[in-house]
Design the sequence.
DNA sequence: TTAGTGTATTAAGACATTTAATACACTTAT
DNA sequence: ATAAGTGTATTAAATGTCTTAATACACTAA
């Protein structure tokens, strides 16, 4: 389901949260579907339960999942996170594009770079 | 000349290096121009000399500046860093685009976002 | 009642960043 | 030659974050 990169300098809890977020965003996890329990996912990823718990807490904070004590974590309805995700991600893209332009890269070259990413596999 | 964000979680030495790099890329610092000494910039930024030294070392490693022991640090000629800057900045764009795609944003919407940045003023 | 769930706390270790205090070699101007 | 300013290097300490570990508690479901 998820593979972590232990050599990456980014915190494990952030990696877990982002990978699950991406799975949800792409439909790999449907709304209403139950996520693995904190303890089970921790075992699967060879990570401490606290680390998974922090990832889940962040995901709930952003509206991607709903937590029910004693039962588990469930994927939220798309309406709860789609707008905020699009806004966040397009904001990042805009910032990066500004930096790319400031560095002197031409418009066509920048567009080509983005197109290539989308046309890969 | 430069203002650091001490609340930002990013390392100070990286912030210093990036801000100087941007100044150079945008012509705020001309080739041949001398940078502030390690000690003076450290005082200006309220930071330890070691931190500035690390920033300068990184900048020299990437070809943005040339260091002469006993004299100072000087902005390198554009030919020394233009390629590496393009590579770095396009790499960032690629990564961001991947994240945008993973979030479920469509190709046309992403391209439109980049186009808008380039067509602004 | 039992097992499985989320949650919370405290302690310890590992690690990166930053500061601090020096020291040394080099260059420039006097 | 001397002095001041430069880059560079080293070692130690302080700090903060991340992670693990070991528990404990409240809740839910079978």
Sequence:
């Amino acid at each position: 389901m998820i593979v972590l990169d232990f050599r990456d300098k980014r915190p494990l809890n952030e990696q877990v949260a982002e990978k699950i977020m991406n799975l949800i965003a792409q439909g790999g996890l449907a709304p209403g579907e139950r996520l693995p329990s904190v303890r089970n996912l921790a075992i699967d990823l060879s990570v401490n339960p606290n680390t998974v718990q922090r990832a889940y807490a962040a995901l709930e904070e952003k509206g991607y999942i709903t937590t029910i004590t004693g039962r588990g974590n469930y994927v939220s309805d798309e309406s709860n996170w789609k707008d905020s995700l699009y806004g966040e991600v397009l904001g990042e893209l805009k910032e990066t594009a500004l930096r790319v332009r400031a560095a002197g890269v031409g418009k066509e070259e920048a567009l080509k770079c983005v197109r290539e990413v989308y046309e890969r596999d």
